[in-house]
Design a protein that fits this description.
It is built from 6 helices and 14 strands. By secondary structure, the protein is an alpha+beta fold. The radius of gyration is 20 Å and the shape is globular.
Amino acid sequence: MRNMLFGLMVVVAAVCAVSPARAQTTPAGSCDRACLNRIADAYIAALVAHDPSKAPMAPVVTFTEQAQVLAVGEGLWKTAAEGPTTFKIPVADPGAAPEGAEPAHHRGGASDGPDHEPEPARKPADAATCVLRHGAAGERSKRNILLLIANAYYGALEQSDGEAAPFAAECGRRENGMHTAGAGAPPRPANAPADGPGFGFPIQGCAEQLDSRAMSYITSIDLRRVWIADEEKGLVFGLTMFRHPMEEKSVTILNKDGTTSQRPMPFAPFDLEAAHIFKIRGEKIHEIEAMGFMLPLYSRNGWSPFLR
């Protein structure tokens, strides 16, 4: 179960909606970082307790797990045994509220309690679950810049262009607990899988890997939900669907010496529902913590009736 809950890294994406009765009396933005963290913590505590009634949720909630819409109380609500302990990355964004709602995205937490008055009016209306089973103040960026930089990462992947996103020289990426790019990588939790070469290939720098076209088997990155940025910590959360038709069974690799080589890609078509947390400092991407779950090609994400 420890290995499964390691996958809760960035799983709870909550849109905290103001109830109609309170919408006129509760000022926008009054649910600050501490409030958002408490709401997310209460959600995780309820999940581990297998008791949705303990979660501060709105009356109508959209809940997905592995991109499938489920009833609250199903899926991980029945199997979770413990919350994150040694590895926890909260991403609180009080400024992401759409039309009277205030989103929060976190991975862990503690409950509000009945005595916190304006906070019970803000309750998760959306929750997305993706389960893996087996800086300095002077370098802070504004929220809109953080969101632009995170979106640039997905464009750089699609274009196989390491210059299309502002990668720091020491940028590192880990996927499902494994170090897959960069000389360094985000600190790994004690219960993560052992590091190894990314996808069986040598590990390259974040930008270098893209320039080599090693990721060119990714045809598109659709249904992007890059809405939540934590200015204080320089963190951005993204939830997307990676498309892999795998029509070509090899990719052409650009080697450092200017030559090319073929890399076999003997995989069946698939989608990857992917969650990312980006650490951005000095308007450069320094660390990427990623998690993905394979799905049939051209799956919907549970949040949109469309494929793109």
